[in-house]
UniProtKB/TrEMBL annotation:
One Gene Ontology term from the biological process aspect of the record: sodium ion import across plasma membrane
Domain Cation/H+ exchanger transmembrane, chain residue ranges per copy: 11-413
A Pfam short name: Na_H_Exchanger
Coiled coil: none
Classification via InterPro entries: Cation/H_exchanger_CPA1, Cation/H_exchanger_TM
Subcellular localization(s) per the UniProt record: Cell membrane
GO cellular component: plasma membrane
Membrane topology note: Multi-pass membrane protein
Transmembrane segments: 7-25, 83-106, 182-203, 215-233, 239-255, 276-297, 309-334, 391-413
Protein name according to UniProt: Sodium:proton antiporter
Domain of life: Bacteria
Record's keyword terms, sorted: Cell membrane, Ion transport, Membrane, Sodium, Sodium transport, Transmembrane, Transmembrane helix, Transport
Length: 708
């Protein structure tokens, strides 16, 4: 009963704090949550004891999994050098240098405890500065660096924190054993996370393949994934659950917004469910922080040889130290990076401001609080954990100083201002449109939801094609191609276990046409390969490799559903194996692959051009073997490939993505109008119309999530 009462009380405090934050927008919601906890502790005498293991499982696992899932993978790879430098090297430097500095500041603090404090302060929280990024004009590269660093330094910082706590509890520490153990639990933890998320991804794809598309079910599966992975990594394999959930989040298949395997409803419901979970977890952490502060101050006054004002001053000095270490590291790292690029600029005001901003932007947040609240009460032998209340107070105060520092100083450095929001505090509630509770009069209808949806998509395509000449052709073609893919997949998503004979026959004819058109395109590519080889423009190895690839694609020419469970998972395993083998081969034999890669680009370019010529001939001929829509899809495929090979792929640029999102929203407005027309004409029932509108709303929400 006490646990239930505590949960209700904490959630109530969180709700009150966030309601107040809407009236005081200049104050970060995290500070108001802390204040709510402080008031509850002072006036209601609330005190909550936290168990280390379940606290890490309940808070760390979902927060880090969600961060890894939402981080842009392209930016993570592009900035892998500075991100790894900040996330690993900077964490180690901060722990060592900061630990020595803290030991000098507080001589009575044991060495292991000093390192423990700085280690738990190493993880940063980038969302604290993201809300001011647009108005404060923080450089995009810096924002991506902070976000990527936070994703990985959560893991490295907490591992260092774990060793610090173990050394304090046991009184023993071996650098050699710690180093070996560090790599062991990190590497094996990463493997556990990768394998587990691969299994979960396969299960979710299999469920979709079998028509199990319940959005609530998929959201629940998504939520439970990080808890299972963390538990298995920690308790079964005895490795880092933190690393496991981070890797799992990065490799999670649902991180791709354009993944056609999942419906817009599943994507939207899952995304909003995660918003809710992270919103609550982060709020609870800061409310708990506020509850702990008064008791930490009280115990600090009575049990430690330092007064409260002195402890606040120490926390301020420690925060300044962390800012200086980050700023110096940024200066040193950029010096070596610029030196490698022959862009040596040892001093400039802009560079100085960037380094200072990098230092201030290292805001501490939820992960730091989770770690410090998980400190054990006792050490080996039953003695109290050394200066636990002091560490809790210092860590809590450093979080507040870092938050206030970012709130005040970053706008000053960028000559602008804006309120700050913490991780999870940007939750946006959904508003249902077009809800009508009037009684529905039964009418005779001719169209099911799937049939109506098909007609609406056809009309939308015609509308977009009529506007194509007046707009950006590439943007319109991209959206039209996606709608054509949706039409092709519509029958799959709405599959019935028992199909009529004419439906089966129609599907087989459609699949046969796809296969025939692929065969024509592949033959064009083979002709291009032979021509290049005859003209001695490619090597024997590249020629053989290209022919083997085309032969493999020809075997897999028909995109079909898997009726056998074993067949589905064998195919899933085979695709994964080929991806791993391809990555490993390219990594190990990089030098040998350079010439082959250059030849492969020639082959792909020539093959795409020749296939496009053939497709254009088919489009302008009177041949009725293939529909215009089918040819159009193939043309978009080869056009995108050519743009990518020639470095002109606009689909990766922010401008193109923004224009495409705007057109997608416009197309959805057309769909709403078509739904209304069909309803007024009596072709669909009011219930079907509401279901179609709901799907349109889901699609629009998915677009908005992608833009955010």
């Amino acid at each position: 009963m006490e646990i239930l009462e505590s949960i209700i009380l904490i959630l109530s405090l969180l709700i009150v704090a966030n309601i107040v934050s809407h009236y005081f927008v200049s104050i970060p919601p995290s500070l108001l949550q802390i204040a709510a906890g402080v008031l509850a502790a002072l006036f209601m005498h609330v005190k909550i004891y936290v168990d280390t293991e379940w606290f890490l499982l309940a808070f760390i696992a979902p927060i880090l999994f969600n961060d890894g899932n939402n981080f842009p993978k392209r930016e993570l790879w592009k900035l892998k050098g500075p991100i790894l430098g900040n996330a690993i090297v900077l964490v180690i430097i901060s722990t060592v240098v900061g630990g020595v500095f803290v030991k000098w500041l507080i001589p009575t603090l044991p060495w292991a405890t000093a390192f423990t404090l700085v280690a738990v302060l190493s993880p940063t929280d980038p969302i604290a500065v993201q809300s001011i990024a647009k108005k404060a004009h923080i450089p995009d590269k810096l924002m991506h660096l902070i976000s990527g660093e936070s994703l990985i330094n959560d893991a490295s910082g907490l591992i260092c924190f774990k060793y610090g706590v173990a050394a304090t509890v046991t009184g023993m520490f071996s650098l050699k054993d710690a180093t070996i153990d560090f790599f062991h639990i990190s590497i094996v933890g990463a493997l556990v996370g990768a394998v587990m998320i691969w299994i979960f991804n396969g299960i979710r794809l299999y469920l979709m393949n079998q028509g199990v598309d319940d959005s609530i079910l998929h959201a629940i599966i998504q939520i439970i994934i990080p808890f299972i992975i963390y538990y298995i990594a920690e308790d079964v394999f005895d490795v880092s659950g933190v690393v496991a959930v981070v890797i799992a989040g990065i490799l999670n298949i649902s991180s791709n917004r354009n993944l056609s395997s999942f419906t817009p409803e599943i994507k939207m419901v899952t995304s909003r469910t995660w918003d809710l979970v992270v919103y609550v977890l982060n709020g609870i952490v800061f409310v708990l922080l506020g509850i702990e502060i008064p008791f930490a101050m009280e115990e600090l006054v009575h049990n430690d040889n330092i007064n409260t004002i002195g402890a606040v001053f120490l926390a301020f000095i420690i925060w300044i130290m962390l800012v200086v270490i980050r700023a110096v590291w940024s200066y040193v790292y950029t010096t070596f990076s610029n030196n490698a690029d022959n862009k040596i600029v040892l001093w400039s005001k802009t560079r100085f401001d960037d380094c200072i901003m990098s230092g201030i932007s290292g805001v501490r947040g939820a992960v730091t609080m989770v770690g410090v609240l998980s400190l054990p009460m006792t050490i080996k032998g039953g003695a109290p954990f050394p200066s636990r209340t002091l560490l809790l107070f210092l860590a809590s105060t450093v979080i507040i100083f870092s938050l206030l520092g970012a709130t005040i100083l970053i706008p000053l450095l960028t000559k602008n201002s804006a309120p700050v929001a913490y991780r999870g505090n940007t939750f946006v509630s959904d508003e249902d449109d077009d809800n009508d509770d009037e009684d529905e009069t039964p009418v005779v209808v001719k169209l099911t939801q799937a049939e109506a949806n098909r007609i609406i998509l056809d009309k939308t395509i015609k509308k977009l094609r009529s506007e194509m000449d007046d707009g950006d052709t590439a943007v319109y073609s991209s959206v039209i191609a996606e709608y054509l893919y949706d039409i092709r997949n519509l029958s799959i998503r709405n599959r019935s276990p028992k199909l009529a004979s004419h439906q089966i026959s129609k599907r087989r004819v459609k699949g046969k046409k796809d296969a025939e058109l692929w065969d024509i395109c592949f033959n064009c590519e083979l002709e291009a390969i032979d021509e290049l080889y005859t003209n001695h423009e490619i090597s024997d190895e590249a020629y053989d490799l290209a022919n083997r690839k085309i032969a493999k694609y020809k075997k897999e020419i028909v995109h079909r559903r898997y009726n056998s469970t074993v067949e589905f998972f064998l195919s899933y395993f085979r695709r994964t194996y080929l991806q791993i083998r391809r990555w490993f081969y390219r990594s190990v034999k990089y030098d040998d692959m350079q010439q082959i890669n250059q030849d492969s680009i020639k082959i792909s370019t020539a093959g795409a051009k020749r296939a496009l010529v053939k497709l254009q001939e088919l489009a302008h001929s009177d041949n009725d073997d293939f529909t215009d829509n089918l040819i159009y899809i193939f043309q978009r495929h080869y056009e995108d490939r050519l743009e990518l090979l020639q470095g002109k792929y606009r689909g990766r640029t922010p401008q193109f993505s923004g224009d495409r999102a705007a057109l997608e929203v416009k197309a959805l407005s057309y769909q709403r109008a078509f739904v209304q027309d069909m309803l007024e004409q009596g072709k669909i029932s009011k219930k079907t119309a509401n279901e179609l509108r709901q799907n349109i709303n889901y699609s629009e929400e998915v677009i908005n999530i992608g833009v955010e």
